[in-house]
Write a structure and sequence with these properties.
By secondary structure, this protein is mostly helical. Helices cover 49% and strands 9% of the residues. The protein has one domain. It has 10 helices and 4 strands; from the N terminus they run αββααβααβααααα.
Length: 223
Amino acid sequence: MYKIFKRGLDISVSLIALIILSPLLIPIVILLKLTGEGYVFYYQRRIGYKNKYFDIIKFATMLKNSPNIGTGSITLRNDPRLLPMGKFLRMTKINELPQILNVLKGEMSLVGPRPLVDRTFNAYPEDIRGRVYDSKPGITGIGSVVFRDEEAMISRSTLPPHEFYEKVIAPYKGALEIWYGEHKSMKVDLLIIFLTAWVVVFPNSAIVGKIFKDLPQPLALKA
């Protein structure tokens, strides 16, 4: 029943969102076409449901050759590879909105673990890699909410970006995604959708831990 209801919610919300957001999306398409390198959408191979690959759709925010420049798959807060509109689109998460099309195609859900590229996926511990995509990947999820400003965290670290991701972020984010797989329900999904909007408006809010009191803690905070 949960899967049927979830798919119905995905389709209905996605269609409504496309209609409501069209006055925002159309100008962004035009501006992206006129600025930067003149391309609008970015397609990237990601790992999805049951570890099968699919192409995720986003608004373009970085140079076309960015995977082969600088920090590669990891983006920093003031990354020099960002296009003129890139920082704004990423900070507001508007760059994620074209994934509504992935949801309509059934490749993603509104809520679920974030689909990753091979390198960041392989940073997960082996046991997590085998379980995390038992849930369909989502536009947002508990990992996305907790790590809402991942770029700033990486930028502040004294460790090299990839080392910090692999040693600090990946294990905790993986634990959060497994938590979602064990607790997923319509109530949890709706709360995560609410929290996604909340932390965009109030980025320093501690409300996540107040709503989900049994979330796993970062390894550094464990006794």
